[in-house]
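Justification of resources, computational component.

The compute hours requested in this renewal are based largely on the per-chain cost of generating structure records like the one below. Each record pairs the submitted sequence with a full structure-token output. That output is archived, and it is also reused by downstream analysis tasks.
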Amino acid sequence: MNQKPVSKILVLDKSSVHNRTIKEFCDANGLVPLKARKSTVMAVLRTNIDLGGILYSDDFGDTPEETVQLALDIHAARPELPIFMRCDSQSSQTGLENKLDQIICATYLADGMEKLRDAINRYIFCVMYPNALLRGISEITTSVLTNQFQNLTVTVDTPYIVRDRVIFGELFSLIPLESAWCRGFMMLQAEATPLMAMANGRSAIPAQPTFREVNDLLGEITNLIWGAFKNRYIGDNQASLSRVVQVPIIVNHNHRYISFGSENPQLCFHLRLTDQVTGSCFSIYERFIFNLSWSPDDFMEIPQEVNQLIASGELELF
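The structure output for this chain reads:
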């Protein structure tokens, strides 16, 4: 029996010439293709349909400008979905790559499906993460940062897998994740100077914050995201206390390197925070490192109605 998982993928391509090629490619690579018309794309993406990615063409819009705008709208609606774009020529490939480099995961030419196969394996089938988890983490993180800093606009790039161990910025926070379906850590990484500006902006009397206040700010953000993650995905269903296996975490400050004792890939969210007044932008990187246990088959999202009843005391987890 073939144990390789399949993934539903949305095909946004008007070319009748390439329909058969795309169908054969999907059949050979564990993809279930679903087609949508241009007029129905956004309605489809607003549903709870479980997708693994999007096959997009460089002529899906009636004009190049519409093609670019549709891609931006699609990414804004479902930022967790990787977008793979088919180009008819090398020139159109280069032009659209420059305009959409922040959201397009890969481009490929119509006669070069091998590049698409490599991209599919890289972004979809390297490690399986439930779509509900990816979308939920983005929602939780965006909500926390928006509530903390109402003068900032928060955007989240397409989640991606990283294998490097390099630390971004001067600061990072770690907090354990313990459940029946995962064990590991959540980590936030940031540069110190923008965080100082954030801490300064929250004060009624502007003053240069100390490094301790900046540390407290990153710790507060981390704790709020962790608490919302716990309420939504873990509840009181903690991992068994009998699990005592640990691995050493190694930090090399000189090389800005951190190792969690595992070669497992890490799930990364690149958060872009933009000041609505000055337009200045800076980044926070959020990583989920499931280095001790990862069982996506056991993943389950706790309905939010249940969370509300638990918070009010009307319901208890048994």
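The longest strand covers residues 281-294. The chain has two domains: 7-123, 131-312.
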